[in-house]
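Q: My collaborator sent me two sequences in one message, no labels, and asked for predicted structures for both. Can we handle them in order? The first one she listed is below.
A: Yes, handling them in the order given. First sequence, followed by its structure tokens:
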Amino acid sequence: MPSAASASTSKAINRLTPLEVKNAKPDEGKTEKNLNDGGRLYLVATATRKRWQFQYGLNGKMHKQWLGDYPKISLAQARKLRDEAAKAVDEGKDPRIERQAAKVAAKYAAANTFEMVAREWHTKELAGKGWSDDHAARILQRITADLFPVLGSRPIESLKTRDLLHPLQLVAKRDALDLAKRLRQYITAIMRYAVQTGRIETNPAHDLQGAIASRKATHHAALPLTRLAELVARIDSYTGLKVAKLATRFALLTGARSSEFRFARWTEFDLAAGTWTIPEQREEVEGVKHSGRGEKMSRERVIYLSRQTVALLQELYAINGRAVFVFEGQKRGAPISENTVNLTLRKLGYDTQQDICLHGFRTMMVSSLNESLQFTHDAIERHIGHEGKAREGEAVAGIYKRKAQYLTERQRMLQWWADYLDANTHGQYIAPDAFATADQSNVIPLPVKAA
């Protein structure tokens, strides 16, 4: 018996015309009519339906395979499907099984596109890592905007390093290098998850490291310590909005980040114990964007309050004691804006790009504490809320250091810093090491509360 493939090379194929196919119907008194296009391809027409059928012989038996309905499958498409099926028969394969396998593969690929796997990864991370709603939404927005249009519909197993690099290059062309770096991290994590769930064998995203240029690090503006007395004097002389002045002074006394103190609530403070507990996440306040933000590194952290800071908060309580936010702004029910402190500094005559900005307070504080030679590096880092990467050989030691709270030292450190700022209010700069050698016997610590 000649195969369909050999038949398809004869002059007996492609007998039908598009018009014949369109007008095909059973003869009068018949329920069905078969029109032979050659190469064992038939159009089976009934009164209500027309279907393409391929007939073939395999392993000594005749078989039939339905290729689809007309007009959904045109004459040209039916002939292409016939040729593919005939080729499979010539190779000793059953085209029905091959087609079913292709459908299963397509269904599997559709369920394992980059977008499907990325969304699955995002859901898992949200549940497992306890991301805040804001943080989770930012990540999903980024990958939706910049990764899904390029990679979303691609089967995860088909993606090579060059494919994953393409959306990063598009983002880098917009000069959004920081965003490109974050997207690379997301891609690496998504592809790692694909490996872990058995979709792929190896992670092609590992080779993206270094493929996109990094932006040169920029440092936040901070005054040299020799101008500390000038800074303190200017803040003390500010005659503008009282809450703005107290917020600026509070930021200098504590070294807290903007989002950490702007969204602070009175319930976080224990003025008797001299502590402020920054939660890893706060309860959202309706209508106040980002009000659920807590400690930046998403872990509870205790800030010890000096006597000066407690006095400042007591003064502030007389103004905002009934407000939701400790640092409520001029709009009732809303905190001061993220630019309040920097705006205050500009009113005091500083360029927040070149001279000093809110974040620069932290720089000056850390520099002074280090130069005093009174406090350990770990206690300073613990207070400031840094989670530095362990140097080689320090991994185990780092575990124990993270457990250590340096309670008494941190409390003494914050009181020293507040007293040092007071010492610099007389208009003449005192170096940290010089102040450290002065008599500090009058420093009375508040009760220690565990971090």
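Q: And the one she listed second?
A: Here it is, processed independently of the first:
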Amino acid sequence: MNTLLAWLDRFPLALLIALVLWLAVAPIVPEPHLVEKLRMLSEGTLTQPIDIFDLLLHTVPLALLAVRLWRNARRSRG
């Protein structure tokens, strides 16, 4: 676990933000996958394995960014 967190701390923040923005809106037309998959999840229609994988693909970078920002905030406070 510490190895993963150390890697995340070394990963360039600007690149992580760019990755998050890109995957959050890709594809733009007709509807971003993240919005579509979250809607499917809320409606209870997210059942196909490819859709579940797609949701994970588009949300993991968001989770990594959240952890990175949380760790940065903790480090600057302490």
